[in-house]
């Protein structure tokens, strides 16, 4: 019996996908920049099935690559070196919303959009949000410590995770879904697993914090003379009681999204150096806060359909860039006072004829760098931008994760001692390097047993 036969016995024949055409959708990321091959896609539906799959894979000497909605941008969920692709898409259970604790338990395969809708049906909301909400899943968000647009108000994914259910490499199951708001009993394993990108355990469910559902919203798009002026707006913006998001769009980003959607730019500001999108949400109409803010600024108020149209532009920037070609993508963050220095360097180091399209989350100093036409200069541009990011006190990954794209940079980012500690944790929990090898830490290809007899 081959290990594929054993996997079929665990999850059922329909949930072990070996046909090349069917596997193809799991083997390529959503921007079609990262590709790999897997002998099979396995779709378990319970932590016990995940545990059994991991034990079979360990016995066969085959690695496992967990995958959720496959919306990642750094290659971390694409199979490599013949690894089994473990899809968590069948983990779609949503528990009842607990209004007393303002928490809910969600399966790893639940999409962020489905989670939001489920919470709102009970008058609450889930805080973390970004453009890929319809496809991105809870498990992927946990594994990458996803951020998005509302970090300025609620933080990234880690503060929302009150507990986890996960399967370790040896098949043992961690079940910590109580969601206790106060607990000081030893190490907090859920915090360790958040952001580990599937290298320490396979997350199967999460106990998540919910937030109030603010049904009254208003947004504004502000044209600033420069990025420095945009940063200087932050203290004033943070004083807004209903502040929910502060987004940055450099002029090129706003232009490509509007062109892709076939719409006119929401604001006519030809000489603007940067655009700031401010979103407010409250239990009552917050538009007056923005009206007062806009009194001395070049900007437009967007409420109702106009706000939805503005968010549509923001959410389509990545898609619009992808339609123009395969960019060099770098997700970095620096202290906000250094953001202008970093952006100036990006424009300086791109080769002649290349196009830099930048946007991100202003309050966190997080900029998504997209460079079209870098071609043979990609490695040099990446080196200079990431090195400058570190020197400016920043991070080489603000919310997309390390994946396989930035493994060579993790040690530089964290320093030798922290890097060694992370490797020691990996070795302790996954001594056979079974879980997502090549992510976070470089690794050699594995030897494996044949998939077919």
Write out key terms for the chains shown:
453 residues, Uridine Diphospho-n-acetylenolpyruvylglucosamine Reductase, domain 2, globular, Uridine Diphospho-n-acetylenolpyruvylglucosamine Reductase, domain 3, 33% helix, Alpha-Beta Plaits, 20% strand, disordered C terminus, 17 strands, 17 helices, 4 domains, four-stranded mixed β-sheet
For the biggest β-sheet, the strand order reads 14-11-13-12-16-17-15
- Helix fraction by DSSP (H/I, runs of at least 4): 25-40%
Going by helix content, strand content and strand pairing, the class is: alpha+beta
Characterize the biggest β-sheet. 7 strands, antiparallel
Total count of domains = 4
Query: Can you tell me the CATH architecture of the largest domain?
Result: 2-Layer Sandwich
Strand fraction: 15-25%
The CATH class assignment of the largest domain is Alpha Beta
Find the count of extended strands (DSSP E, 2+ residues): 17
N-to-C CA distance = 7 Å
Mean pLDDT value: 94
Low-confidence stretches: 445-453
